[in-house]
Amino acid sequence: MSPTQDAYDCVVLGAGPAGCTAATLVAKAGFSTLLVERESLPREHVGESLMPETYWTFEKLGVLDKLRASRFSKKVGVQFVDASGRESKPFFFRSHFDHDSSDSWHVERAEFDRMLFDNAAEHGAECLDQTRVLEVLFDNERAVGVKLKTSAGERRIASRVVIDATGQSSLIANRLGLKQINPDLKKAGIWRHYRGGDRDESGGGVKTIISHTSDQQAWLWYIPQSNDVISVGCVGDADYLLKGRGPAAQVFDEELAKCEGVARRLVDAEAVDDLAVAKEFSYTTTHAAGDGWTLVGDAWGFIDPVYSSGVYFALKSADMASACVVDALRTDDCSAARLGAWNAEFKAGTQWVRKLVHAFYSGSFRVGQFVKEYPQHAGPLTDLLVGKMFAPEMPALFADLDPWLEKAAAEGGSAGDSGEQLAAIA
């Protein structure tokens, strides 16, 4: 199948959560929209634990009822396990905010992405998978379309706006040299899926579990999904995990053996797929938009998986960017300034999560102690952990947290109670 016309108001590249969101919202506004995906859908991808704040974009997309009716595991909270194996009291989101938005999901991305792809089509976008983007076409510095390859051959498609949602491939950012690796977060991840692991459904659903290894050189996620499947991943410095230690499977097993919080939950489990590896996944871009184009989701940047912010950032960036795209198309002003007007607010909000990630890895984030000294920040800190990063209280929180972390590091603070993060502020 190939595009049905030679020109669109908007072409969206990549059918992950960001691309599907952008395509849906632009098409809903009445503009001709083409969404293209290189792979055949559904396609495999590491499972995701969703932040509760994804609710509001799902509401805009009209997929809440589909999610509620899906087989995805309902996520009701988070639990942390420290380096000694001590488990925090589970924190249930509804104990902080009793609203439907407090319930989220652990999703299998193949099915989840297909749901969003079909939803985009239902709202008027033309959606094509197995369609390769050969080139983003520019007239001087303005994006004017794309060159595609489908089963029917090559096509040149004109577009008033190109939205790059190609994930870490980040076609436009790589072409223009906009991508910047975060030198302080050169991490790597190794993961696989298991069947038969422990599933604690107290509280009406499952929880994301974050566990430190005994030497605190890495941490592991434990995400119960549907069909008795558990996603387990290990994250640490890229050099530590991937250089000079042998095959990834050996490294994964070694780190798992040092992580009592996960190992004991997998005693009766068996691996159901091969390992996957990703590295240096923390990066940003110097520009979010240019004349005729904008970046969303991982094409714009990615921080770290520790707080499960990836899909939320994808959805929220696409939500905000699509509003600017609709405004640009309505006013016939597809300039960089108009298309990128969303980014200042988005960047300001995501900086708080970035700071919290750095605090997690600092070795001095003793949250229980911090909240004891600054009880007024308990609520805002929890807000940030559930995704409310645009709350007005965030600057005041970090005005106190930043110097507190510096002092704790100077005094040799330990990350030993970081497993108590959510329980300490519930």
UniProtKB/TrEMBL annotation:
InterPro entries: FAD-bd, FAD/NAD-bd_sf, Flavin-dep_Halogenase_NPB. Keywords: Oxidoreductase. It is an enzyme of class 1 (oxidoreductase). It comes from the Bacteria. GO terms for molecular function: FAD binding; oxidoreductase activity. Its EC number is 1.-.-.-. Signal peptide: none annotated. Residues 9-183 form the FAD-binding domain. Pfam families: FAD_binding_3 (PF01494). The keyword Oxidoreductase applies. This is Putative FAD-dependent oxidoreductase LodB. It comes from Botrimarina hoheduenensis. The lineage of its organism: Bacteria, Pseudomonadati, Planctomycetota, Planctomycetia, Pirellulales.
